[in-house]
């Protein structure tokens, strides 16, 4: 496994970063010019100004440093999708990035060419970088920060020789452990290698033996990428930066064709895709689309991306484009329409899905919704609006007691009012359907009625309402049918209130 450790540092002139500590201002970071002038991290600002009167002192802003480093990490994904922030960075005003370039070096002409391209591009962006590539993260970290060369590729299984003359601090050890080892005469890594691990751990703690074994490849050290790594990823490196919409469209079509070819072999389709454009100024622009069904239609997917090209800012040019399938689903072959004109059921569903996808990607996935059934006996809660890209839910049904038969849900009116509307009703007896009622100023005489259908309240959802409802399906003398309910039970001493809740066809 090839691990690359990159140490970055912005350097324009002699300057330091200052922070408040114990009532005085101390140096939190220094550029290379300041370090060359003898200014060390941890010294007071007054001592630093005594050494260099023209020193530029800038207040430290750790949050801004982390934000800038995160942006640089996104840009470094042009080399590999596995990029992580180095938690050990920032001790001397610098920042570190881990790049796992296993299987990626051949895209750049080899490991040395990849390392040179990385450092040269960082230099053109105003960063001073030191980089090393090794089999283990620990060896790459040590050589990048303590090696004599700005860039170095350590040969396979050559980490012991590369680490031999480096100080013990190169093993990322605690300061107390380094001081204790130096007091017994162990000052370089080569002196620590032949020492038995048991007495080393007993005297200096487990961190010393662990870091040494990790650097030598005797113990694993996994790296967690900043963003999830998706295996279905295609990359296009451009010989010259592009900036026009037509060039962006052609690059997108090429990547889609390559990705679709792979998905066809696996009988899978894409549900969510991300297109990343790496600009020459070190920034990244991304476009993400989603589909309501698994798709391998390159033309339809391209149309979804193309709707966003007008707001894509290429800057001074784009030199690398990547396409990732973030969500996949299995697909099955569909029968073509044969023997008659017009759209088949499958073709109609496909056309509707394409329209839905275009609207959702143009207006936002949450702007396009559809009703879905929810398991609730209360009619106004039995339906909810969900984003259209959610998988279709199964209709609500229950099993009969002691039987495997499925009982369909209760009959409901075609039109359900948004809120039940109060009515004036007159019933001959309690718990009976009304003989007539008044709704919206009109009087309705009942000819036939069925019911009641009693629905108990969902007290665990709304503890302020505990009224039971008795629903009736009624038909007036002219054949119009209504869905009424009486809220409250007379036998419990409630004052019944009538409502109209829906209309049947």
Secondary structure blueprint with pairings:
Layout: E1 3-10, E2 15-21, E3 24-30, H1 32-36, H2 45-51, E4 56-59, H3 62-75, E5 83-85, E6 95-100, H4 111-124, E7 127-134, H5 137-146, E8 151-153, H6 159-163, H7 175-183, H8 189-192, H9 197-204, H10 206-216, E9 233-242, H11 245-266, E10 268-279, E11 284-295, H12 298-306, E12 318-330, H13 345-363, E13 369-373, E14 383-387, E15 397-399, E16 406-408, E17 415-422, E18 424-427, E19 434-439, E20 442-455, E21 469-476, E22 481-487, E23 497-503
Parallel strand pairs: 2-4, 7-8
Antiparallel strand pairs: 1-6, 1-7, 2-3, 5-6, 9-12, 10-11, 10-12, 13-14, 15-16, 17-23, 18-19, 19-20, 20-21, 21-22, 22-23
Helix pairs in contact: 5-10, 9-10, 11-12
Provide the β-strand percentage band. Answer: 25-35%
Radius of gyration: 35 Å
- Trace the largest sheet across and list its strands: 17-23-22-21-20-19-18
What is the typical, i.e. mean, pLDDT? Answer: 85
- What structural class do you assign from the helix and strand content? alpha+beta
> How many E-type strands?
23
Tell me the count of domains: 4
> What does the overall shape look like?
elongated
Largest sheet: 7 strands, antiparallel
Helices, by number, come to: 13
Low-confidence stretches: 391-396
Question: Terminal Cα separation, in Å?
Answer: 69 Å
Give the % helix.
Answer: 25-40%
Structure report:
The protein is an alpha+beta fold and 505 residues long. The protein is built from 13 helices and 23 strands. It has helices at 32-36, 45-51, 62-75, 111-124, 137-146, 159-163, 175-183, 189-192, 197-204, 206-216, 245-266, 298-306, 345-363, and strands at residues 3-10, 15-21, 24-30, 56-59, 83-85, 95-100, 127-134, 151-153, 233-242, 268-279, 284-295, 318-330, 369-373, 383-387, 397-399, 406-408, 415-422, 424-427, 434-439, 442-455, 469-476, 481-487, 497-503. A 7-stranded antiparallel beta sheet has the order 17-23-22-21-20-19-18, with no helix packed on it. Strand 15 (397-399) and strand 16 form a beta hairpin. The longest helix has 22 residues, at 245-266. It is elongated, with a radius of gyration of 35 Å. Mean pLDDT is 85; it is low at 391-396.
């Amino acid at each position: 496994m090839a691990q690359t450790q990159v140490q970055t540092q912005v350097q324009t002139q002699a300057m330091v970063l200052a922070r408040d500590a114990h009532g005085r201002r101390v140096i939190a970071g220094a550029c290379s010019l300041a370090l060359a002038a003898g200014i060390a991290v941890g010294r007071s600002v007054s001592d630093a100004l005594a050494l260099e009167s023209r020193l530029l002192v800038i207040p430290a802003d750790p949050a801004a440093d982390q934000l800038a480093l995160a942006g640089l990490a996104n840009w470094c994904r042009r080399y590999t999708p596995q990029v992580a922030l180095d938690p050990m960075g920032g001790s001397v005003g610098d920042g570190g990035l881990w790049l796992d370039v296993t299987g990626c070096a051949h895209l750049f002409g080899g490991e040395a060419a990849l390392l040179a391209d990385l450092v040269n591009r960082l230099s053109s962006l105003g960063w001073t970088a030191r980089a090393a590539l090794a089999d283990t993260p620990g060896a790459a970290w040590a050589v990048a920060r303590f090696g004599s060369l700005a860039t170095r590729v350590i040969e396979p299984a050559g980490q012991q020789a590369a680490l031999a003359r480096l100080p013990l601090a190169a093993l990322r050890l605690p300061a107390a452990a380094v001081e204790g080892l130096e007091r017994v005469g162990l000052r370089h890594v080569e002196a620590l290698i032949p020492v038995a691990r048991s007495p080393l751990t007993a005297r200096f703690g487990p961190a010393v033996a662990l870091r040494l074994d990790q650097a030598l490849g005797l113990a694993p050290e996994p790296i967690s990428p900043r963003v999830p790594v998706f295996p279905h990823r295609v990359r296009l490196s451009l010989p010259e930066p592009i900036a026009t919409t037509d060039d962006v469209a052609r690059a997108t079509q090429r990547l889609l064709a390559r990705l679709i070819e792979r998905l066809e072999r696996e009988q899978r389709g894409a549900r969510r895709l991300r297109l990343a454009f790496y600009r020459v100024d070190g920034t990244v622009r991304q476009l993400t689309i989603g589909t309501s069904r698994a798709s391998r239609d390159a033309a339809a997917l391209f149309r979804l991306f193309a709707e966003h090209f007008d707001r894509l800012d290429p800057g001074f040019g784009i030199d690398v484009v990547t396409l990732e399938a973030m969500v996949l689903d299995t697909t099955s072959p569909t029968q073509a329409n044969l023997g008659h004109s017009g759209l088949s059921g499958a073709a109609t569903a496909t056309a509707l899905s394409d329209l839905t996808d275009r609207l959702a990607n143009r207006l936002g996935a949450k702007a396009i919704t559809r009703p879905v059934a929810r398991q609730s006996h209360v009619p106004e809660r039995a339906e909810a609006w969900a984003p259209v890209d959610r998988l279709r839910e199964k209709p609500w049904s229950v099993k009969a007691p002691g039987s495997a038969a499925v009982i369909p849900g209760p009959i409901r009116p075609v039109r359900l009012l948004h809120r039940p509307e109060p009515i004036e009703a007159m019933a001959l007896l309690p718990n009976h359907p009304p003989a007539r009622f008044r709704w919206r100023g009109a009087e309705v005489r009942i000819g036939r009625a069925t019911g009641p259908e009693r629905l108990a309240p969902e007290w665990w959802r709304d503890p302020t309402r505990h009224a039971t409802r008795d629903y009736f399906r009624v038909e007036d003398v002219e054949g119009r049918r209504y869905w009424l309910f009486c809220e409250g039970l007379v036998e419990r001493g409630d004052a019944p209130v009538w409502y109209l809740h829906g209309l049947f066809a």
